[in-house]
Amino acid sequence: PFFDGNNYSHWKAKMTIFIQSLDYNLWDLIVDGPSLPTITNENGEIIPKPRNKYNDDDRKIVQLNAKAKHIIICAINSNEFNKVSSCVSAKDMWDRLEVTYEGTNQVKEDKINMLVHEYEMFTMHDNEDIKTMFTRFTNITNALQAIGKIYTNSEMVRKILRRFKKFLASKKKFGGKVFKKNNTQKGEPSKIEEIICYECNKPGHYKSDCPRLKKKEQGKKKKAMIAT
After folding, report:
1. Which residues lie closer than 8 Å to 150 by C-beta, 6 or more apart?
2. What does the alpha-carbon distance between residue 121 and residue 115 come to, in Å, rounded to a whole number?
3. Distance between CA atoms of 28 and 106, rounded to whole angstroms?
4. CA torsion, points 218, 224, 226, 228, in degrees to nearest 10?
5. Can you say whether residue 93 is alpha, beta or left, with left for phi > 0 and alpha for psi between -120 and 50 degrees?
6. Which one-letter DSSP state was computed for residue 51?
């Protein structure tokens, strides 16, 4: 995955899977940070360990960190590289990009609250097909997942089914339903809305205006008059 400064959340999700698939130890190092070799000098200060004093374990840690840095660097453009080039560890690089594009913890919390509100208030729009509705819903849940708020699949399925059923129920109050139909006539839009009657299943009118239903009602009235 390559990051050019746009759609960071998508790049982050793809990059996470990519790194984990290469070596999960690399991912642990990026998340938790490497314990780079250090020593204590004569003043009691902890300083980076000189390379000429590395042992085999030290070199393994340093090499793993360099490998993780290399993967991140190869996945970003020159502008993004300038932001992280001074970082010592792969974790520092990852965290700097995260703060740059997702903000601090407080900013993240604000974003989560905003997206959770969108999630909770989610509903199907008028004149919106199922595919468009599902795309909007997925964009919200993906954005939440990217900043650490995760819903289970069962929660998301129940949520979208409830909203869809509520939308259908609101349509049934009018005795008809709305769907989108392809129109191949030249000069006409590719999709139009048609009202379908629930009584006769024919387009162009609601159930309350259905000729068949009116005939039935008239027949009932005549029978009632004859009976009296």
Report:
1. 144
2. 10
3. 24
4. -150
5. alpha
6. G
Alpha carbons 121 and 82: distance in angstroms, whole number: 40
Which string of DSSP letters, residue by residue, matches 63-128? HHHHHHHHHHHTTB-HHHHHHHTT-SSHHHHHHHHHHHHH-SHHHHHHHHHHHHHHHHT--PPTT-
Structure tokens at 219: 């027949």
- Predicted confidence pLDDT, tens digits, the chain (228 residues): 899 989 888 899 899 999 999 999 999 999 998 888 889 888 888 998 999 999 999 999 999 999 999 999 999 999 999 999 999 999 999 999 988 888 766 666 777 788 888 888 888 887 888 888 888 888 888 888 877 788 888 888 888 888 777 777 766 655 554 444 444 444 544 433 455 666 777 776 666 677 877 777 777 666 666 665
What are the angstrom distances between the C-alpha of 200 and each of 176, 182, 192, 197?
11, 22, 20, 6
How many CB atoms are located within 10 Å of the residue 76 CB? 21
Tokens of 54: 């590395």
The three state secondary structure string of 126-187 is CCCCHHHHHHHHHHHHHHHHHCCCCCCHHHHHHHHHHHHHHHHHHHHCCCEEEEEEECCCCC
Please state the pTM of the whole predicted model. Answer: 0.52
